[in-house]
Amino acid sequence: MKKILIVDDEKNIVRIIKFMLEREGYKISTAFDGIEALNIVRREQFDLIILDIMMPNLSGEDFLRIRKSDKNLNKIKVIMLTAKKTEETKNECIELGCDEFFNKPFSIEEISPVIKKLLAAENL
């Protein structure tokens, strides 16, 4: 069973994504800020992280910087979610190693096939 970590300070977004992905058969863990997420990924292995950019304690961009420099974490696939709808933000996240980027609001129907694609690519 593939493990996904959802990281967002908006609890309703986390709850909705978690519910939908559990229905699709994924094992889901959650975190509500970047520090909590970092602590979790250092203890457990994940196949994918769904990560918000604007969070307390450690932003999504800062999380990506840490992940990029850590050989134990840099292979985890990352989908970024953000309300920051600028090309500069998107380009920075891609440069920092995120695999996909979605603007809020989003639908789980648009993210679900991307999750399947990223997790399938991991098995190649």
Question: How would you describe this protein?
Answer:
This protein has one domain: Rossmann fold (3-Layer(aba) Sandwich), CATH 3.40.50. The two termini are 17 Å apart. The chain is built from five helices and five strands. Helix content is 46%, strand content 20%. The model has no long low-confidence stretch (mean pLDDT 91). It has 124 residues and is α/β, with parallel strands linked by helices. It has a five-stranded parallel β-sheet with strand order 2-1-3-4-5, with helices on both faces.
The end-to-end distance, rounded to whole angstroms, is 17 Å
Number of domains: 1
Q: Count of helical segments?
A: 5
- Give the beta-strand count: 5
Mean pLDDT figure: 91
Concise summary:
With 124 residues, the chain is an alpha/beta fold. The protein is built from five helices and five strands. The two termini are 17 Å apart.
Supply database-style keywords:
124 residues, alpha/beta, Rossmann fold, 5-stranded parallel β-sheet, 5 helices, globular
Fold blueprint:
Blueprint: E1 3-7, H1 11-23, E2 27-31, H2 34-43, E3 48-52, H3 60-69, E4 77-82, H4 87-95, E5 100-103, H5 108-122
Parallel strand pairs: 1-2, 1-3, 3-4, 4-5
